[in-house]
Amino acid sequence: MRNSMTMRLSLAGLALCAFAAGPAAAQGRPWYGCYAGLDAGYAWGRDSNSESVSATGAASPYSPGSAANPNGMVAGGYLGCNYQTGNLVMGVEGDGEWANLNGYAAYNNTQAPPDEYNPNITSQGSVRGRMGIALNNNMLLYGTAGVAFANVKEHYVLNSGTTQTNDISSGLTGWTAGVGMEYAFNRNLLGRVEYRYAGFDDLTTYPSVFPNYTENHSISESVVRVGVTFLFN
Asked: Which residues pair with 33 in a beta bridge?
């Protein structure tokens, strides 16, 4: 429900941008053209794991009592193109990032130290639409939404007796939506601040260290980024 509400709010923001563009008083600077940029930011996420018995599908008594909360830095680049009519700016953008988000969660009803899992998001990207309003000669407010991708490594640890581990790497697909602001230092050099949320499809794994159990992960993240853009126009 939380993911659905976030998507509805983001789409409502895009619609508001389109409505507000109509009566805008001044066209402002040109934002049209293609661009490339670099960004960096901080991400915080949630990896909730519900463990089940593989043979029956019944809930496991060892399911973690709380979610892992991976967090860390991201950095990468993006490419896109804008089309402008009046104060309304529309376009498409793609990005790719290195990521280093790490988290921890313990399983219930296990020995001390408990069994655990540690998610690590190692890279991510997206392909999105953008729609925004040029407020004046230097500022653009926009909303953005599209398809998101990520690579995650789940590290499972069995601490009963001799410690045993199992790493499972997976590619994730989902959706992302957010808002941002761009500021023009001159005709071609822009700065941006952006917040985006991403929700990914559920991930099911079968770690060898827990041979009779299935791990069912639900993964999401939020990211705040700053970026520098060169606009070719």
From this structure: 82
Residue 65, classified by CB atoms within 10 Å of its CB into exposed (0-12), middle (13-18) or buried (19+), is exposed
State the Cα angle at 211 between 207 and 217, rounded to 5°. Answer: 40
Render the burial of 10-38: b for 16+ CB within 10 Å, e for the rest.
beebbeebeeebeeeeeebeebebebebe
pLDDT above 90 as % of the chain? 83
| Beta strand 88-102 pairing with 71-85 | antiparallel
Domains of the chain: 2-232 (2.40.160.20)
Contact 198, 220 (CB under 8 A): yes
- Report percent pLDDT > 70 for the chain: 88
SS3 category, 172: strand
